[in-house]
Amino acid sequence: MVHRTQHTIRIVILAGLLVLVFPALFSQTSSCDLQIPITEGFIDGHGNASAIGPGDTVCLLPGFRSYLWIRYLHGTSDAPIVIMNTLGGVSIHQFYYGIKIDSCSHIKLSGKGVSALPYGIHIFDISVGGGLSIEGLSTDVEIEGIEIYNTAFSAVYCKSDPDCSFTSTRDKYVMRNISFHDNYIHDAGNEGFYIGSSFYSGVIDTCNGKDTILLPHMIRGLKIFNNLVTRTGWDGIQASCADSACAIYHNEIWYDSDAAVFNQMSGIIMGEGSICDCYNNWILYGKGNGIQDHGLAGNKTYNNLIVNPGRTFPEEFPYQNGIYVGTQQTLPGNSFLIANNTIISPKDFALDFRNESSSGNRFINNLVMNWGRGLVNVEMGSNILVQNNYTDPNFDVSQFVDPGNGNFDLRPTSGAVNAAVPVSPLNLSFDILDRTRPFALVNDIGAYECHDSSLIAIPENQSGPSLRLHLLTGYLPDYMVIRYTIPSQDRVQIGLYDISGRLVMMVMDSLIPPGEYEQQFVPDSLAAGTYLVRMTVGHVSISKKFQLIR
If you write DSSP's letter for every residue of 240-274 in order, what string do you get? Predict the structure, then answer.
């Protein structure tokens, strides 16, 4: 079994105080502006919730209900409307659907209203349709703390399909800022998450008596993270038509594609029209490809653990691989980057690459063991650089800490340790467990960065003296302070990086004498989100992760 424990610490700027918030340890409480009893199936901004506006909280009273239709509610980006359980768990079951979010904007649906319940809203036994849908031109929606299971079709749908009204076509509507996190999806008949249309190139419908190509809308700003997905009939997570600010990360996916339906078999699929970062995911023992990529290129896939993809699927065709890159539409000049993944025992290939339109593609710094047909299969006409991967056609257990129990962290004696090469523009500074890269001299190959203390005792890994780095917040107007100590004169670089490793702000780059320093800066150009502050002195680097809250 793979066991993950994540402790998220948020750094919140509150009038000069540094506040550390541990989400698992506090109870979310809020006054209720409206309470919805179990006999009520609607939250209607034109009806029973007409008085609800930005910043208000709607509370779902505990108990069983047949369905919940949320419609015509509109918050703002600074003050979303929150809908959450209160006083206990909410159960929704045995109807055509569970929860429908229709014609809404800037709302948050949360099952974390009671701290003792990680999933305080349950949707289950949906015998005809799906569990939860976001539709009707809705936008800016966050979903957390919900368990969905035993659905006839997909557990989650998120899209507004185009029709002859032309209100949801690509030129008329963009869905923005959709977030799914900390949810538990299992035993879904089709996909766990079905996000965006699968038909980026359009569908044909008869409008006003004429065959008309209808292009589906795009999603700009999509985050799918910290979700547990198990036993889906089709793909675990599918995200399509999401062409900017799309990230799929820190999800754990077990036993995907159990129904074994061709063209519906993967742990994660980045569908047509997507440009996503896919990283720090666990994809385990599914019948399908671990990760499929049919995007526009520009996609980056890294720090993922993929174990036994397709091994329980007995058919000879189609191939089931660690990672598959297909032949759909690609933006000219774009490329696919696949780096620092750990791929164990794929049924066929670690990588099956079939995209003939992209260029500058790389398969680099990946750790691959015990493949079926081969390491890499490249379709004639495709172009990819396969470089600096640590590979073994057999399964060498000595490389890992405890692979029998799902721990694929590296032993310090592994040949993958200190063996990675730089990957621009990724500048990877964390591993699948969010530990700092590099730990010793340079990054390790694969998803894990070995943090065994014995590595630092090896002279060739001692690239310099230890550093001290402390991150603070300042008094209003908001600013941040970095305090650090350096033992000798050296070049000091301090930068802020987004979660994908991209430099977003260079705080300083100077040659300075030894001593203790305090560097103040104002991050006013940065949006709310997760960042890394990284200080490099000579050849030594140290990083700290923080959450910028606006």
Answer: -SEEEEEEEES-EEES--TT--TT--EEEEE-TT-
